[in-house]
Each structure stands twice: as structure tokens, then as C-alpha cells.
């Protein structure tokens, strides 16, 4: 809880510098949401892998959001439901090439996809994040996350990653 509070306090220091509606001097695109169609577990796994590739590897956030339903349920307490709040928050952050992402673990067990990854460039310390997504047919319908930094004077000597 403390780590996630610190994380988002860190972000509130970064985001106002961007100015409204602009990233790198360009206007913010509007995401086109996913329309739910039936999908098998195998199809959902393929869509999850595509979503992960677009979001965390290619960092093409507008394209990644085309897999998220308009009425997305968001459990991150700093964001509202629906895609607009999450997009406006995540687009400047994940489009920034100074912020790096390293995927550590990934699991898909329909209808849930899990991604554990390392982020550098947001806070002074590298940050571990676990995102959990629930699919509804072809679309991401719900999201939870857990965010962790290594504490000063950690009890366990293992590296966080
Ligand atoms: C990108 O991230 C770096 C490192 O955190 C930060 O210094 C810079 O201000 C960010 N740029 C934008 C446009 O957000
Ligand atoms: C799936 O999406 C449809 C269409 O938006 C909605 O009616 C339904 O409640 C959703 N189901 C679940 C389990 O999220
Ligand atoms: C970490 O340990 C050092 C040495 O015992 C101590 O001086 C420091 O206050 C500790 N820092 C925190 C944040 O606990």
C-alpha cells in the first residue's frame, strides 16, 4: 500500500509537466475501444499475447487499448472505470522511451491474463508491477494491479527481480 502510494505520488509530479492533452508536443490520440464478441480460451490467449506485445513491448498504447472494452472495470484506486481515465494516465507514461519495461513472467488461464514486469524511469528505484486482466470474449473487461518497490534495509537479501 505504501509502495503504491509512493508510486502514484511520483507520477503526480511527472504528469503535470506534460500539459493538458499533449505528449511530446503532439495531441493525445483517442482510443477506439474493443467490442465484445465470443472467443474461445485459445483465442483469448492469442489476444492477450497481442495486447502484451502492443502495450509493453511495442509501447503502442492506442493500439493496445483497442483490446479494452469501453466499460472496462478498473480496480486501481487512482483511476476511474472506462477506458478514458486509464488511457489519459497510461499513454504519456508508457509512450515515454525513457521509461523502460522488462517482462518477467506471464500466465494466461482463461479468462485471466497475468503479467509481472519491471519498470525503470518512473521512481528512483526500479518498480515491480503485477497486472491482472479479465477477458470478456475478445476484450479486456477488468483490471487489478499490485505495485512494489524494494524497501530500504530489506530483510531478505535477494534482488527484487
Ligand atoms: C519521460 O521520463 C523521464 C524519466 O522518468 C522524465 O525525466 C521525462 O520528463 C519524461 N518525459 C515526458 C515527456 O513525460
Ligand atoms: C461481457 O460484455 C457484455 C457486452 O458489453 C456485457 O453485457 C456482459 O455483462 C459482459 N460479461 C462479463 C462477464 O463481463
Ligand atoms: C537503514 O539502516 C540504517 C543502519 O542501521 C539506519 O541508519 C537507517 O535509518 C535505516 N533506514 C530505514 C529507512 O529504515
Question: What's the short version?
Answer:
By secondary structure, the protein is α+β, with helices and mostly antiparallel strands. The chain has 4 helices and 7 strands; from the N terminus they run H-E-E-H-H-E-H-E-E-E-E. The structure holds 2-acetamido-2-deoxy-beta-D-glucopyranose (NAG) (3 copies).
How would you explain this protein's 3D organization?
The protein is of the alpha+beta class and 161 residues long. It has one domain: Nuclear Transport Factor 2, Chain: A. It has four helices and seven strands. The strands form two sheets. A five-stranded mixed beta sheet has the order 3-7-6-5-4. The longest helix is centred in the N-terminal third of the chain and has 17 residues, at 41-57. The radius of gyration is 16 Å and the shape is globular. It starts with a helix and ends in a 12-residue tail after the last strand. The model is unreliable at 1-23 (pLDDT under 50). Bound molecules: 2-acetamido-2-deoxy-beta-D-glucopyranose (NAG) (3 copies).
Chart the SSEs and their pairings.
Blueprint: H1 2-14, E1 22-23, E2 26-27, H2 41-57, H3 61-65, E3 68-74, H4 83-95, E4 100-109, E5 112-120, E6 127-136, E7 139-149
Parallel strand pairs: 3-7
Antiparallel strand pairs: 1-2, 4-5, 5-6, 6-7
The chain binds 2-acetamido-2-deoxy-beta-D-glucopyranose (3 copies).
Protein name: SnoaL-like domain-containing protein
InterPro entries: NTF2-like_dom_sf
Signal peptide: 1-25
Amino acid at each position: 500500500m505504501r509502495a503504491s502510494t509512493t508510486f502514484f505520488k511520483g507520477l503526480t509530479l511527472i504528469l503535470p509537466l506534460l500539459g493538458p492533452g499533449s505528449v511530446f508536443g503532439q495531441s493525445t490520440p483517442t482510443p477506439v475501444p474493443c467490442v465484445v464478441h465470443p472467443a474461445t480460451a485459445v483465442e483469448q490467449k492469442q489476444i492477450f499475447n497481442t495486447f502484451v506485445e502492443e502495450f509493453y513491448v511495442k509501447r503502442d498504447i492506442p493500439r493496445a487499448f483497442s483490446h479494452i472494452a469501453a466499460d472496462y472495470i478498473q480496480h486501481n484506486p487512482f483511476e476511474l472505470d472506462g477506458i478514458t481515465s486509464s488511457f489519459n494516465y497510461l499513454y504519456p507514461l508508457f509512450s515515454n522511451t525513457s521509461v523502460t519495461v522488462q517482462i518477467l513472467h506471464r500466465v494466461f488461464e482463461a479468462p485471466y491474463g497475468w503479467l509481472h514486469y519491471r519498470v525503470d524511469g518512473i521512481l528512483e528505484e526500479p518498480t515491480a508491477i503485477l497486472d491482472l486482466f479479465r477477458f470478456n470474449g475478445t476484450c479486456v473487461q477488468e483490471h487489478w494491479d499490485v505495485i512494489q518497490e524494494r524497501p530500504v534495509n530489506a530483510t531478505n537479501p535477494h534482488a527484487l527481480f
